[in-house]
Design a protein that fits this description.
mainly alpha
Length: 293
């Protein structure tokens, strides 16, 4: 049990580290995600081939998963765009508004009643972002990308729920990332043209950070999460991933000293978001009918 919890929190820490790596890599957001997907999908394919266990799936299932993979790829592009146009801390604070979008989108997709308290808590997180935006407009483009990133992350989680009802997690992850890679390959020229971003090859340092991002923060973190799920409840896993923005912001403060560039409005907005997240976590914890594993 202790080892599973350590694996889980290492996976969450690695997820929080992706923002720091996004700032280190000099490529624009679209190319960064394209190379991340290229390395990750290639690595997973090699691992499956070595084990002679390439997941098999129907054409209908494949198309559904590819659609969700497209959402994943676009979420990553928006997330790294937020970092490029602002900084890691702003991007992660915006990402924390995913709860608001989940509270609105999930009832629509699953045809269930909207939870007023979840909408209000999500609205509190949105108020935190607005507070930062209203009093510090330097990062308005980065905040816009961050809000889009949170919306797509919420949409991905909801769509993924439906897909996972029929498929194994390893199969879903592999084909989602493959679908994201194929769709981003098709969309990349248009995105670069519309945003007037240049096409450039990764530098030697970029390749190093891309490999770390793909191998450690994507492939290894995924297997750590799966390993933890063998002995830890899915609820505990989801609850723990609320720490991802916290880890990322602390790392950004430590490595880039971003705290020196942020105004008081950032901390007020961050406090509102933390209140919303902690409140929601406590609500879910209290409503749990059985003891956590």
């Amino acid at each position: 049990m202790k080892r599973s919890l350590l694996n889980l929190h290492l996976a969450v820490f690695l997820a929080g580290f992706t923002g720091v790596l996004g700032r280190l890599i000099s490529l624009n957001e679209a190319l960064l995600v394209w190379y991340r997907l290229l390395i990750t999908v290639t690595t997973l394919l090699i691992l499956f081939l070595l084990r002679r266990a390439v997941p098999k799936i129907s054409l209908k299932g494949l198309l559904q998963i590819f659609l969700v993979g497209t959402v994943v790829a676009l979420h990553w592009v928006a997330f790294y765009g937020s970092i490029k146009y602002s900084n890691v801390s702003i991007a992660l604070v915006c990402f924390s508004t995913v709860g608001f979008f989940s509270a609105v989108l999930e009832p629509v997709v699953f045809k269930k009643r909207i939870s007023i308290i979840e909408v209000l808590l999500g609205g509190l997180a949105i108020a935190g972002v607005y507070f930062i935006f209203h009093f510090d407009t330097r990062y308005k483009k980065g905040i816009a990308f961050g809000i889009v990133s949170a919306f797509l992350a919420a949409l991905f989680t909801i769509l993924n729920k439906k897909v996972l009802e029929k498929q194994e997690p390893a199969t879903v992850t592999f084909y989602e990332l493959m679908g994201g890679f194929f769709m981003l390959t098709l969309l990349l020229p248009a995105y670069l043209r519309l945003t007037h971003l240049p096409y450039s090859l990764p530098s030697a340092h970029d390749w190093l950070w891309l490999i770390i991002l793909s191998w450690l923060c994507t492939v290894y973190a995924f297997f750590l999460s799966l390993s933890a799920l063998k002995n830890v409840s899915a609820f505990t896993v989801n609850l723990s991933y609320n720490l991802e923005p916290v880890y990322g912001i602390l790392l950004a403060f430590l490595i880039y000293r971003e705290n020196e560039d942020l105004s008081n409005s950032f901390y007020i907005g961050l406090s509102l978001i933390i209140i919303a997240v902690v409140w929601q976590m406590s609500r879910v914890y209290r409503s749990r009918p059985v003891m956590l594993k």
